[in-house]
Design a protein that fits this description.
2 copies of one chain form a homodimer. Chain A has 135 residues and is mainly α. The first copy, chain A, is 56% helix and 10% strand. Chain A has a single domain, classed as Arc Repressor Mutant, subunit A, CATH 1.10.10. In chain A, strands 1-3-2 form a 3-stranded antiparallel β-sheet. The structure holds a DNA duplex (20 and 20 nucleotides).
Chain lengths: 135, 135
DNA sequence: CGGAATCCAGTAGGATACTG
DNA sequence: CAGTATCCTACTGGATTCCG
């Protein structure tokens, strides 16, 4: 029996090499990218209301049009965000979280709060490590 | 009051722009990289026992020496992994999870199980989206 | 307005060879 | 054994321009 920590992670069927790889890598290459989580986050703050592209762009500091577009496309593709296109003049596009999207955000609460609790310790560790310099 | 989903995420002091950014990006660029989580995972499976560099390399499928070294260095720098160097001939180096490291892994359980539950749906969504092709 | 297209710089990551 | 050192490629992400 492994440690309790990983017990639930071990439910995945083992692969040909005889161990269960974490799906975290690969599947969430998405999570690792620079903007995806921030987009989900801003949409969730809207709590059910839809947000226009320009609103998202204004609220997510530093994101470029291209990166926001790419992030939204990937989220839409995964079914985490719904895109509503209104063929008006000028055109209007609104985005909202899907059920799945908000579920994923909920699932992120664990690491997020852990990070908030441990961020300063990590930064301190890095400082110490870097000060030690050449070993 | 925001949605329940993000309530606990909102405890962070707001920044100058008036909203609380998720720390998930930036702090865990680490989490987003290709090998970090897998290294933590393999170390946790050892449950307290230390693992040698070569053991890790053998068990983490596809990782190169360089990438494993970099991942371990970063984890050590953050204080998530402890490195024990034995100046023998030939040299021996052993790695183990720190308390902090296993805490982080525990905190990852949320997304991990969510991903395992939703992976097939996501893949299906992607398939449908890609089949729709040109919109 | 909400992109798409293009160009470009920086970096993550892989292959290979060498070393204390 | 456990790395460093190089080299190289591919992808991320930024800036800019154009389009329906």
């Amino acid at each position: 029996m492994e440690s309790v920590v990983v017990a639930t992670l071990d439910q995945q069927p083992e692969d040909a090499r005889g161990f269960s790889p974490l799906p975290s890598n690969g599947i969430c290459g998405r999570l690792g990218d620079k903007w995806t989580v921030q987009v989900l986050w801003r949409l969730s703050l809207a709590s059910g209301k839809k947000l226009r592209f320009s609103a998202l762009k204004k609220e997510i500091d530093g994101v470029t049009q291209r990166m926001l577009t790419l992030a939204l496309r990937n989220l839409e593709r995964d079914g985490l965000v719904a895109r509503h296109y209104f063929p008006e003049v000028p055109p209007r596009v609104e985005y909202e979280l899907t059920e799945m999207g908000s579920g994923m955000l909920r699932a992120l609460e664990g690491i997020n709060s852990w990070l908030m609790d441990n961020l300063s310790r990590i930064e301190e560790n890095r400082r110490v490590y870097d000060d030690a310099e050449q070993r």
